[in-house]
Amino acid sequence: MIRNKIILFVAISFFGLYSCSDYLEPQQLSIIQQKDIYKNLNYIQQMWVNSYSYLPNGYSSVLRCASDEAEAINDQSDVQRFNLGNWTKYSNPDDSWTNCYNGIRQCCEIMENLPNVTWEQYKYSDPVEYKRRTDLMVQYYNEARFLKVFYYFELIKRYGGVPLVNKKLYLDNDSDMYFLTHVKRNTFDECVNYIVSECDSVAPDLPLSYEVTSKGRATKGAALALKSRVLLYAASDLYNQDGNTNPYIGYVSGDRQKRWLAAANAANVVIALGSYILSTPYRDLFVLQTNVSNQEIIWQCQIPNSNALEKENYPIGYEGGNTGSCPSGNLVDAYEMSNGKIFDWAVNGSNPYTGRDPRLKASILINNEVWAGRTVETWQGGRDGIPRRYATKTGYYLKKILVDNLDLQLDQKSTRQWIYFRFGEILLNYAEAANQYGGPDYKVSGGLYTAKQAIDKIRARVSMPDVNTTFANRGISINKDEFLKLIYNERRVELAFENHRWWDIHRWMKAEETLGGKISGVSVLKNNVSGTFTYTPVETETRIFDKNKMYLYPIPQSEIVKSNGNLEQNPNW
User: How confident is the model at residue 499 (pLDDT cuts 50, 70, 90)?
Assistant: First the structure.
């Protein structure tokens, strides 16, 4: 039997490891015999780098404008298919099936071949080089092993149970072709167990950190953080529906409370490493320059010089700005008052942005705020307001992930990093799981914090009152359900625009009132005599969400056809 032994090989500079999606630039293209690749260290390193190239780039994600975080300025953008409810098994703006399986295939390629690379020619002639190379092979193998299950998580959070394909398949191999044309889904339970088992196995073999020039590589913390997120999702409502009999879309049996406890314990393991802390100030975390270390970041993707994000999202009145994502009033209204009370337009509407959670102004540009050298004017008739074409639909502009003061006329650029896992998320994961298992004051065995204390740490970073003070100021008592509402909102504001909200809404099964609800904004009028402003909440869009099918993505119909119908489609698609 002859396998395909010629590889179309994308050779990328080492810095390409830090690139993602649209920022990944191939430097040369060549055709190489597969047997020669694993005799040449440079080729092996390029294969290893390529295994990272399938990672999602959160900066270019459509999902912030598909969730209730933001609205896309372009009515013709693909994300509107989500908002109008007209996405299908033939057309999905966030279909990641092929990309993730390509990443898995690349990882399998590395894992199948690296154990056979011995570097015997150096063993006696150059023992130092021999050790360096053999150590590299082990490192690359373990990084690929982690990446493979990261790609699997990207699949299961979209589709539920998916086929676990843990070898590189060849189209000219009869048994491989038979597998591909008869492939079936693994259950959701099997997929979760596989990912968790691999995280447990590979974590001890990954380093806690690398030198600053190698940021972006998989670490022990990344593997443990992935386990934390997977188990939190697995314990959530979407995958634990009463009466479910479909093992592909969630659990059909078992003790859900044990799943919450497992999620809390997994988050606690990351906390107990003692390697991560919350950094200050909050906003600086999201505009760090490449190769700048930060102890809150667990795993990141570093982006080379670019101003694409600023060009897309600077306010329309700025030279080179195109508005892009307009933060929603729904999100803005979710930021509490600085004393922990819930914001209320009826009470606070005359001066709506004073005395609010500091994360509001760290994340969102509001009217009359100084930004990039001038004052933002979202009022009607202002430089950044209606009726100017492509002015914000919601009265707000994006800030959190943008670099201030780039001169787009001069094409100034900046490096940045996309954060996949950070310590703030781990504390939120822990608080949610611990509260769901044992309530606000529950602490896992050997844990450092109760659920409340984990939230207190996050709020203290931005000088928000602790949980006890917050509830006292609201005049209500703390219980499991009320505290859970606070956790949900804390995730919303703390992790805004970090590609969590869409998935949180799904796993909590709250999409009917969010993804299927109304998107709000604010109308801003200026009194030209006094120079004061009047703010009025307005509705900007009504969205559509079909709860009978849209909590999970449809498996692409092309994949159903390739499997001769053996892949079972998700319900009602």
Answer: very high
Interhelix angle 97-113/127-159, rounded to 10 degrees, is 150
Name the residue among 240, 148, 160 with its Cα closest to residue 568: 160
CA pair distance 550, 545, nearest whole angstrom: 7
Minimal CA–CA distance to 489: which of 473, 508, 516? 508
The position carrying tokens 């509830």 is: 471
Q: Is 90 exceeded by the pLDDT of residue 214?
A: no
Q: State the chain's mean pLDDT as an integer.
A: 92
DSSP letter (8 states) at residue 554? P
Tell me the CA distances in angstroms from 148 to 7, 16, 102, 113, 166, one per residue in order: 20, 19, 10, 15, 9
Q: Give me 203's structure tokens.
A: 């974590």
Q: How far is CA 112 from the centre of its chain?
A: 29
Q: Which residues pair with 71 in a beta bridge?
A: 326
Q: Which residue, among 261, 244, 257, has the nearest Cα to 187 in the 3D structure? A: 244
Tokens of 494: 């703390």
CB 110 within 8 A of CB 53: no
Tokens of 573: 């698609």
The per-residue pLDDT for 400 is 95
Burial 267-286 (b: 16+ CB within 10 A, else e): bbbbbebeebebbeebbebb
The reported pTM is: 0.93
Q: Residues 108-132: pLDDT tens digits?
A: 999 999 999 999 999 999 999 999 9
Scanning the structure block, which residue is given the tokens 């991560």? 276
- Residue entry with tokens 């190239």: 53
Pairing status of strand 370-371 against strand 364-365: unpaired
Give the model's confidence band at 31: pLDDT under 50 very low, under 70 low, under 90 confident, else very high: low
- R_g (Cα) of the chain, nearest Å: 25
Using pLDDT thresholds of 50, 70 and 90, give the confidence band for residue 3.
very low
Burial class (CB in 10 A: 0-12, 13-18, 19+), 93: middle
Question: Do 94 and 158 meet the contact criterion of CB atoms below 8 Å apart?
Answer: yes
Report whether 146 contacts 218 (CB < 8 A).
yes
Q: Which residue has the tokens 């709250």?
A: 510
Q: Is residue 323 a contact partner of residue 315, using CB atoms and an 8 Å limit?
A: yes
